[in-house]
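Appendix B. Chain record.
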Amino acid sequence: MRTLEQIVHRGEVRWIFEADIVSFFDSLDRTELKKMLAVRVADGSLLRLIGTCVHVGVLDGEVIMEPELGTVQGSVLSPLLGNIYLPSGLDRWFTTEVKPRLRGKTTLIRSCDDFIIGFEREEEARRVRVVLEKRLGRFGLTLHPAKTRLLPCWRPPTTQQRGQGPATFDFLGFTLYWTRTRNGHWRMGCKTRRASLRRAKQALYEWCRRHRHQPVEAQHAALGRRLRGHCNYFGVHGNFQSLLRLVEATKRAWYKWLCRRSQRTRLTWERLTDFLRQRPLPRPRITVRIWSG
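Structure tokens predicted for this chain:
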């Protein structure tokens, strides 16, 4: 995302093509995948082992399903295979065939199956979108019609004192948008995507409910690990408020389910506050500074 911020601020990108692949891991063409692996891997035993892992069935209730396409969801091998499949089907094609044919500047930013493409010219962005759908179709992939869109992404004029920038889009669990600095300059802001924050709150709430009968010290340590892991990823400059909301939601959920441990005694908020004063939960902190200025 640092690259995205730099090219946007230099004016090299004025349009963002936000793409979403439908069921990427379920749609991989295994025949094409084997061809790509054969180019990279010369060990036949390793290729056979990968093929065995790819063809593992999925247990759905009491029925074992053996799909003919894709890789196993949740397998440790799936992200690795995805990072072999898309570079051959997308990255190399974009670098060698698309960029040389465009007059304006363009860039591709991809992480596994999530990617966005920045364009300087709108007409070239629309042309590439049509060709991209055909290109992905050759590899059994389809762009999501509702989640794939072209957005304006130029810096608002300095004379604009109110309102927002031209576009807001999501990428890798973050929402990127235009905001003003304390000096009054426009820059790209970054915060936790609303759906990602909601899922994180729900996951911590469910954890507190399921483990409410464990010792308080054990619960405190486990919640601390989960909050630190979340902050290590989402602790981006400008995202402090989203982190703070998650910590406060965790305190409320923990208090609610601690009160339901027993009907004989009831925990008060004051007692929990005293406990957290002695053993506080991890304080939200910024671990990565992506944006300059």
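Further analysis of this model is presented in Appendix C.
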